[in-house]
Amino acid sequence: MDKSEFLERLNSGLKDLPENEKQEITADYEEHFAAGAEAGRKEAEISAALGDPDKIGKQLLSASLIETAEKTGSLSALCRAALAIIGLGLFNFLIALAPIIIAASLILVILVCGLSFVFGGVVALVVSLVPSITPADMIVVMPSDSPLARIALSIGFIASGLLISIGSIYPARLFVRAMARYFRMNLSVVRRAYGNEN
Amino acid sequence: MNVQFKKGVLDLCVLSLLSRRACYGYEIVHEISETMEISEGTIYPLLRRLKKDGHLETEIRESTGGPARKYYHLTESGRDLEQSLREEWSSLVRRVSLFLGDADETCEHEPLNKNER
Lengths: 198, 117
Fold this sequence. Notes:
The complex is a heterodimer of chains A (198) and B (117).
Chain A lengths: L2 H10 L6 H20 L4 H8 L2 H20 L2 H13 L5 H37 L17 H21 L1 H25 L5
Chain B lengths: L2 H18 L2 E2 H11 L7 H10 L3 E6 L7 E6 L1 H25 L2 H7 L8
Antiparallel strand pairs in B: 1-3, 2-3
Helix pairs in contact in B: 1-4
């Protein structure tokens, strides 16, 4: 493998990284090839000693995604990091993804609950404002007959639904950060192990 | 050398090298690979991690005749980390050699747990 093929394969693994990080990484390896050439080594020799560019790419990618997930609590960064780590064969699929899936489901339940409140509130509001459009087979059961009380109640429902929905973001962020930290702790050990393969 | 042995000491070797003098990437890789067999490309992710954690800083220096090079040097926290990893390493080596030596003799002369005597 010559220099350009090595860099190309490395770069294709780094697509998800921010542009400036990609450039920094490429520059590091370019400098390495240049210094190796100065020392009289062939490109193929240098790239063979460097190791598999796909693995190095995944390693750099997972490190960067974990950092993003830890800083921003982004679930998408966390999932992509988990996939890169699984791709490296460092984590078992279930160990990496099961906690993410369980937590995501719980958070989804809270979110659906909140959205149901909003939906119910909107229907109640419409029916209270314009009783004439109530479908014939729909039975409206509300604690008060006064339109004003009904409207207030509907708005209350919508507001609490929105609060529940927005509230689900906080445990989600908290969980993503905790998982990212967990990955990082594990990787700081495993990543060093990577220095010896190939 | 065993894979598990190497994994823990790679950080220490890099930090120790940089505690002696600032180096550029190729130099670090070259020096380390003289001592142990490694996949050379993985030194760079390690350097990035140490830099992100604030243990290293880099500066670009012009080289005579060649292209500019990125030199790595330790920060204060890098020196502290090197010191603590070094101590951990020597204490591990001491304990393991003690254990690998004659076990009876070891217990007589220098018990690991002094309360047991």
